[in-house]
Amino acid sequence: MTATTSLLTDHYELTMISAALSDGTADRQCVFEVFARRLPTGRRYGVVAGTTRLIEMIKDFRFDPDEIAFLRRTNVVDEPTAAWLSAYRFTGDIDGYAEGELFFPGSPILTVAGTFAECVVLETLILSVLNHDCAIAAAATRMVTAARGRSVIEMGSRRTHEEAATAAARAAYLAGFTATSNLAAGLRYGVPTAGTSAHAFTLLHDDEPTAFASQVKALGTGTTLLVDTYDISQGIRNAIQAAGTELRAVRIDSGDLSVLAQQSRELLDSLGATETKIVVSGDLDEYAIAALAAEPVDIYGAGTSVVTGSGAPTAGLVYKLVEVEGRPVVKRSENKRTVGGRKTAVRRHKPTGTATEEIVVSQGVPDHLPNDRLLQHSYVANGEFLDVPSLADAREHLRQCLISIPWEGLKLSAGDPAIPVVMVSAA
Amino acid sequence: MTATTSLLTDHYELTMISAALSDGTADRQCVFEVFARRLPTGRRYGVVAGTTRLIEMIKDFRFDPDEIAFLRRTNVVDEPTAAWLSAYRFTGDIDGYAEGELFFPGSPILTVAGTFAECVVLETLILSVLNHDCAIAAAATRMVTAARGRSVIEMGSRRTHEEAATAAARAAYLAGFTATSNLAAGLRYGVPTAGTSAHAFTLLHDDEPTAFASQVKALGTGTTLLVDTYDISQGIRNAIQAAGTELRAVRIDSGDLSVLAQQSRELLDSLGATETKIVVSGDLDEYAIAALAAEPVDIYGAGTSVVTGSGAPTAGLVYKLVEVEGRPVVKRSENKRTVGGRKTAVRRHKPTGTATEEIVVSQGVPDHLPNDRLLQHSYVANGEFLDVPSLADAREHLRQCLISIPWEGLKLSAGDPAIPVVMVSAA
After folding, report:
1. What pLDDT is recorded for position A334?
2. Shortest CB distance from A124 goes to which of B30, B120, B158?
3. So what's the pLDDT on residue B3?
4. Which pathway does this polypeptide act in (chains A, B) (predicted)?
5. What's the average model confidence in pLDDT over B228-242?
6. Rounded Cα–Cα distance for residues A149 and B88 (Å)
7. pLDDT tens per residue, range A33-69
C-alpha cells in the first residue's frame, strides 16, 4: 500500500496532462461532472455514498518523491510534468449532492471545476470511490427497506477486497445497517461493530456445551450463541442451558431459515427464553430478507450480497468534461441524454413532501418553486476544504429522502427510476 | 487507511480469541483450510491469485498501539487479549497452491497450521484477499482465452474500489493481460502500464486535429489516438494526418465494434497506415471479446467486467477449521463434500500431460503415480517466511496449467469443472 493515493490513477490521466502542459491547454478552466447514464437494470434509485471519504482523499492528494521517481523511470511523464505533479494541490471548486441523497440517471452528483490538469488527474480516484460506495449503498438500502425496521448487520468483509470491505461497511451503515463485523470501519468511521463467534469456536472445543459455557463466561449472557454447528434444536437447548433465559440471541447460519426461525422461536419460548432474539445469516440478499418478513426473525446478517452490490457491483458513474472556458462541450457520438455545460439541480416536491421530479438546468438556474430543494452543496471552494456532514447526518438524510420518494420507488421489483430527471438547457 | 492490516478483520475473530484465551483452548494446535465448495455457476475452473500479496500482509500482521487502544475503548477485547494481540507474530506453517494454479471445488488452496488463536485471527484477511483476487483472475483468464493471442489491457480501475483496482490489475496481469491502466500496480507489482488519452483531451482542444497534433507532439507517433469523440471516419483521417502512417494505434470506445473495426481497418489501409493497430474498448467481457475474433482488432481494453469478476465478483472461498490437536473436525450440518482433517493434494495427468483429476487425501498422502504433480508448496515454515515465486512465474505457471487441462475446460459456455476432485479419507 502506498502512503498516498495519487497513483490510484489511470496512466492516461498523466499523459494527457503531459500533452496539455506542453501545448498550453492544461490551464484552461474546465468543469467536470459525475453522473450515471442509467441505473443498474431495474433499480429505482441510486444512493450517493463515498463523497466524504473521497473529499478527504482529494485533500491529501499528493505525489511523493518515490512515486515521481517511478513515473520518470518508466517514462510515464516528462520532466515538466513531474515538476507539476510534485507541486500538486487542488485549488478549484467541488460541489455535489450530500451523502445519503438519492440520484437518478443524469443527476450531477459531483461537479469539479478548476484547470483541466488539476481536475483530470482526480478522475480515476473520484470514480473508483463513488462507483464502489454508491453501488454498496444502493444494495444496502434495498436490504434495509426489505427488513422493515428489523436490524441488519453487515458481515461481508471476507467476500470482497480487504480495503473495499471497510468502505462497504461504511456505505452499509450509511444505508441504515445497524452494525458491521469490520473492525477497521469501527476505528476509521465510528461504525458500531458486532460479532461473537463462528463454527470454528464450537469445533475447537470438546463439545458444544463446553464451547457455549466458555463463550458465556468470557462474553456474558449478552452474547449471541451460534447454534447450527451440529443439531439446531439441541444447540438451542445447550445455549439456554449455558446462558439461561437471559441469553441475548441465538444465530442460525444455514438451512431453510424460514422454517428454522419458526421452530427456534417456539423452542426458545417453550424454554422460557421469550426475550432471546433470533439472528439469521447465510446468503441473504434483499429478496431473501423480504421473504422472511413474516417469520420471527429479529436480526439479519448480510454478507456477500451487500459487499458485491447484490448483482450491481459498480454504480456506472462517469466523469465527463462538460465545460471549457465557459463553453459547453459534449462528445458527439453519445446518446441524446448527454447535455454539455455546468448543471444546477433541484428536486421538486408536492406540498405533501413527496418528490415529483428532478430539474437539472445546464448553464443556468432552475425556476424556484415552493418545496424545491437545492441538491448541490459546496465541498471545496477555491481550494479550501469545507467542513463535511457526519456519517450520522448522511444516514439520517437518506432516511428522510426515502420517505420523500413516491412509494413505488421503494419496491424491490424491477422498475423505472422513482422520479424523472428533466434536463433543461438554458443556453 | 490504517498503517497495519490487522483491523481488516471481523469483530468475532477477536471475541473468539478472548474466550479461547480465558478457557485455555487458544493454544490448541489447529489446521484451517481454504477451499471453494463450488465454482461460480457454469465456470469450469478457478485460478489461484493473491497468495503472494497475502503472505506479505501476514508477515506484517501486527496490532499497533492505536488499534489496541480502540479495541480496549470499545470493549471488543479484554486486557489479556489486548496483551496477546500486541505481541502477535504468526509462528505456524502456511502451505498452499502456487499462484496461477487452477483449482476446483474442494481443492485445498491454502492450509494454515498453528495455534487456534494465531490462525483464526487471520481468517478475514485471508478470505478477503483470496476471494477478491481469485475472482478477478478467473474472469481475466477467460478473457485472455477468448482473445486468442491478441493483447488485452486492463482498464477498469474506475469501476471498483480504489485499492481493489490495484489488486485487480495485478490479478489480470497474472491471468495474461499485457498491461494495466493502473499506475499503482506498476509501482507496487511491476505490472506494465499503458494509456494515452480520453475524450476529455479532445474536447479540451478547439478541434480534433489540434488535439491529435498536440498528443503526437508530446507522446510521439508511438501513441494511440482516440478517434470516436466526433465522427470516427473523420477521426481516423485526422489521426493519420497528425501522425502519419507511422501511428501506432487508433482506439474506438463506442458503437458497434464489429462493424467499426472492419471499416476502420479498411480506411487505415486505404490511407497507407497498414501497420497502425486497432484498439477497441467499451463494456467488453469474455463473450464480447470472443464475438470479435473474426474482426481486424489488435488489442482489447477490458474494464468493468474484469474488475467485477464478470458476473462472479467473489470466489466463494471459505476458511474452515479441519483439525484440532490432530483430530479431524467437521460441522455436522454441512453437505457431504466436506471432509475433516488436513488434506494433501496432487493433480493426476495422462502421459501426454493432460490433467485427468485431482486427488485430495485427508490425513494421509496420495499414492504417487507417474505424471502426478504435488500442488502444495510451503510459504511459511515455523513462522519463517520463505521466498515466493515472482508474478512473472505465476503468469507462466497459469499458462502451462491452461495447456494441461482437457480442452473442454477452456470453453466459455457453462459447464462442469474441467476435472473432478476425488476426495479420499485415509482415516
Report:
1. 56
2. B158
3. 58
4. Cofactor biosynthesis; NAD(+) biosynthesis; nicotinate D-ribonucleotide from nicotinate: step 1/1
5. 97
6. 40
7. 999 999 999 999 999 999 999 999 999 999 999 999 9
Tell me the C-alpha to C-alpha distance, in Å, between residue A289 and each of A303, A313, A405, B97.
12, 19, 22, 37
Residue B337 has pLDDT above 90, yes or no: no
Among residues A240, A261, A280, which one ends one of the domains?
Answer: A280
Alpha helices in B90-249 (DSSP H): 116-120, 123-147, 162-174, 183-189, 199-204, 208-219, 232-243
Cross-chain Cβ contact B5/A162 below 8 Å: yes
Could you list the residue range(s) of the whole structural domain that residue A80 is in? 11-136+312-425
| CA-based nearest residue in chain B for residue A314 | B159
Determine the Cα–Cα distance for residues A418 and A72; give it in Å rounded to an integer.
49
Mean pLDDT value of segment B202-226: 97
Fill in the amino acid letter for B120.
V
Answer yes or no: is pLDDT of A332 > 90.
no
Q: In this structure, are A329 and A251 located in the same domain?
A: no
| B 228-287 residues inside an 8 A Cβ radius of A | 228-232, 254-255
Q: Are A342 and A336 in contact (CB under 8 A)?
A: no
A–B CB contacts, 8 A cutoff, strictly below: 331
Per the DSSP assignment, residues forming a β-bridge with B193 are: B180
Q: Is the same domain home to B73 and B18?
A: yes
B198 touching A, CB under 8 A? yes
Whether the CB-CB separation of A398 and A347 falls below 8 Å is answered with no
A-facing residues of B in 339-398 (CB < 8 A) are: none
Q: Cα Rg for chain A, rounded, in angstroms?
A: 25
Taking only the tens place, the pLDDT of each residue in A108-118 is: 999 999 999 99
pLDDT value at position A80? 97
Does residue A81 belong to the interface with chain B, where contact is any CB pair within 8 Å?
no
- Mean local confidence (pLDDT), B355-376: 95
Q: How far is CA B166 from the centre of its chain?
A: 10
Inter-chain contact B214–A20, Cβ cutoff 8 Å? yes
Q: State whether B83 and B27 are in the same domain.
A: yes
Q: Label residue A426 by pLDDT band (50, 70, 90).
A: confident
Burial of B150 (0-12, 13-18, 19+ CB in 10 A): middle
Q: Give the CATH number, domain containing residue B418.
A: 3.20.140.10
Return the closest-CA partner of residue A153 out of A251, A261, A229. A251
- Residue at A184 is within a domain: no
Average pLDDT score over residue span A386-401: 98
Are A163 and B255 an interchain contact pair (Cβ–Cβ within 8 Å)?
no
- The Cα A124–Cα A128 span in angstroms is 6
Pair A363, A426: CB distance under 8 Å? yes
The pLDDT of residue A2 is 45
Q: Domain check: are B290 and B368 in the same one?
A: no
Q: Do A15 and B197 touch (CB under 8 A)?
A: yes
How close does chain A come to B14, measured CA to CA in Å? 8
> Do B340 and B289 share a structural domain?
no
pLDDT band at B402 (very low <50, low <70, confident <90, very high): very high
Indicate if B19 and B127 belong to the same structural domain: yes
Query: In this structure, are B290 and B336 located in the same domain?
Result: no
